[in-house]
Amino acid sequence: MGDGTAGIGALDDILSQLRIDVIGAYFSQCSPVWREIDYVPAHNKLYYICEGEGWLRIGDKELLPEPGELVVMPANVLQSFSAIEGRRPFLKYWCHFTADIGDAGLFSWLDVPYRLTVDAELREEVGRKFEALVACAAERGIGARLREKAYLLELLAPVVERAALSRTGGTAEDAERIMLITRYVETHLAEELTLDGLADYLHLHPNYLVKYFNQRFGMPPIRYVNRKRMERARLLLRTTDRSIKEIAAAVGYPDTNHFAKAFRRETSASPSAYRAAGGVPGEG
User: Fold this and answer.
1) Cβ neighbours for 186, distance < 8 A, ≥ 6 positions apart
2) CATH code, 179
3) Range of the domain at 89
């Protein structure tokens, strides 16, 4: 297994390559119908519970987070969330973000605790940091992008400090395949992406690829691609002044109307309404 010093060195090497981007950050009261069961998000989520109750499932772990806890919900992991009937739903800060090491997700490299209790004397400080993150995420400009990354890293630091190198993320071959998939999809979002094209790139039979995606990502390949397209579109709508037509083309939709319909299916809002609302997609 190696000694602790070697483990720390490996963690340092991994984190030195970290790329992180905020998709959106918010403070909201969940509604009594806050609920989604058995889905696989393409992005990570960080919650800070302020008040109320709720139920979460991440992989095979069921959680009932309490006020004063941080909760990490990694990308590409089967999960569910729900309000609890008869109980006040969560009042929480929450952030959707990407965090990658090379071409793989941070949490495929690290085993992190899904929930972390913040010490009582630090809770006000954590609330202030999340409030600042929410404010930065609502702004445009390079300065806001840099500040939001800094605040998110500060909020993630106590979670990562308790991390260990993952020994359950699959084989080296599996990790390499996931890196290839992520790299290929994210660098070809402006193009037509087909099941056969992705299978050819990975040198896999299309039927096997569908089975692999369902096992690893909880969804078929084209749905995964569409999730990635919408994730990129949300980021561009929130952080740039590019036109809807330009953003549609950048994520593989030459027809703006087709893009608008797909975006509404994913977020329950039109691209223009999403942008006007500052990128708030609902109670994520």
Assistant:
1) 228, 232
2) 1.10.10.60
3) 4-165
